[in-house]
Amino acid sequence: MTAPTLPPQSTETQQTVAAEVEALLAQMTLAEKVEMMSGQGFFTALQEDNRVWGARPYRAGSGNARLGLSPLWFTDGPRGVTRGSSTCFPCTMARGATFDADLELRIGEAMGIEARAQDCNFSGAVCINLLRHPAWGRAQETYGEDPWHLGVMGAAMGTGIQTHNIIATVKHFALNSMENARFKVNVLADERALHEVYLPHFKHCLDAGIASVMTSYNKVNGEYCGQDRVLLTEILRDEWKFEGFVHSDWVRGVYKVYGASAGLDIENPEPLVFGERLVTAVEEGLVEPYVVDRACRRILTTQLTFARREDPLPAYGKELIACDAHRALALEAARKCAVLLENDGILPLSREKIRKLAVLGVLAALENTGDNGSSRVRPPYIVTPLEGLRAMLGEEAVLHADESDLEAARAAADASDAVLVVAGYTAKEEGEYILGDIALGADKKPRGPSLSPTPIGGDRVGLTLPEAQVALIRAAASSGKPVVVAIVAGSAVMVEEWRGDANAILMSFYAGMEGGTALAEVLFGDVCPSGKLPFTVARDAAHYPFFDRDAEEITYDLWHGYTKLEREGIAPRYAFGHGLSYATFAYSALNARVAGDAIEVSVAVRNTGDVAADEVVQCYIGAPGVEAERAVKQLRGFARVSLAPGETAIARFTVALDTMRWRAGRGWRLEPGTYRVYAGGSSAACLQTSVEV
To answer: Per-residue confidence at 53, pLDDT binned at 50, 70, 90?
Structure first.
């Protein structure tokens, strides 16, 4: 599966834009050019809006009133447009579990439409930082642990957004995979880890046409990313040939004016480092004038290229915000993201047999769509699990109690035919690390408005459920009734402590505004679960890489997730790509051959069950690993197929040999030899063959 890309601009259009850019630059003073290189007015706007993030578009660079040039007007993501009362989709990790790039493209288009309808032309919704460890607080904002999967899904999202002439930015560049220490941590990574694990998904998105890059707060190999010449010039510009613009994350994304020379084009959200300091640096010869011209040329070329494109829609009215079509899209995503982890046959539940259902847990009745930081979306409504089930079964058929009163919970279970326990987390336990309503510097006082000292979110302290929820699951099990546990979280949750008390376990994630409706449909078989885990769930927390949420320095190597466990011969509890169905599937006829510069793979998959169902077929490749140690296998393709009972489909993949190269010094090398080819329903359940390269 390859990501969609936007059509290239015609030579005539490029020449017209280039001429227009040069004409604008010729009329600008140095101060006007430097003004384009930062956001403006954010702190004042935030105070006026009572610290509500996203209450208005934020000026995030560009703009010149004298010349009639509009600024970049920014809105964040990635659960939806963070303005007004927008559609709230399932969190990015949940959408990663769909393994459906076409769906992500359509969600991107919806976000682009709603951004346009709310006066924005610049979106921060494409978050593709790699999930190195499940404790990462903002795991929910990305797609998973695999670079290939991240690249395909992120490119689809960004392409969808840009279809409606909104500039998309891909974030956070780079190696941003921890939250509490993000403003100080120095991430050490060698050449192979950088280019084989932590950067390829960014290149994938930029090759697909995503037009902007947001830097991250952390350091990489001793330098802050917002002023790192290696990342911003040597890699982005010289090696990858990226032509768009680069901007900082919000506040403390750059510390020195040499960030401009290193390749940072815009400091957001205010000129705390650039601005007058940058003007002075140019005047005193510390920064070359061409650096400012270069940044403005990148900004203007990108902006005017988008502005000159024809819009797909005749108008972008307010009626398009959270419209029926977008709500239906949110429901489709919520249906497809649910991952059935275990099932002893109790699911799907039967309406005829379940006259009373006990729905237990505080989270069952809570509007809980995820992080309350920069990704927060305020939709017109949210369907909770309890509301979704009562809408389906009727008020009288659903009993509710929670962990605050175990006796009441046990009584509800005793009086019911089956029990659903909704467990997991909220924005208090995981998410953006926030002091007040918005993170502007975490544990250090920011250069901006003062914030409340009470923090929420951040990296998780542990990977298990809270003790009170475990006690609730055990109380439910003691009733002798079948127990289903639905986990609401942004990444992996350890289940060893209580899985023996559950008849079925479902990963439902932060499922967006329609999550409760989708959960009810999945539980009662109106929808067949088809999600697959975009991360590995280990049996022991020690099986994950080392993680210190307060680290000053940490090393990222080649190994995490399924590649680490396979290298060490450790069986996970649930493998990357795992997900059960109400149907069963049989794989056969795996064939692979080298054709030109690619490996062509085909495999047959048959629905051997008695219900129609979707299956996500996954293709992995294993390199010889003689010249350099390589992963046992790496994902290189996935496809969602819909099958009626007894139906067979052929899934086909074309894997470019270039994607199997390893980083040798400062270049790339394709190792000759025998390549293993895998295809199946998860990383741990595959057919295998081989080809010679």
So the answer is: confident
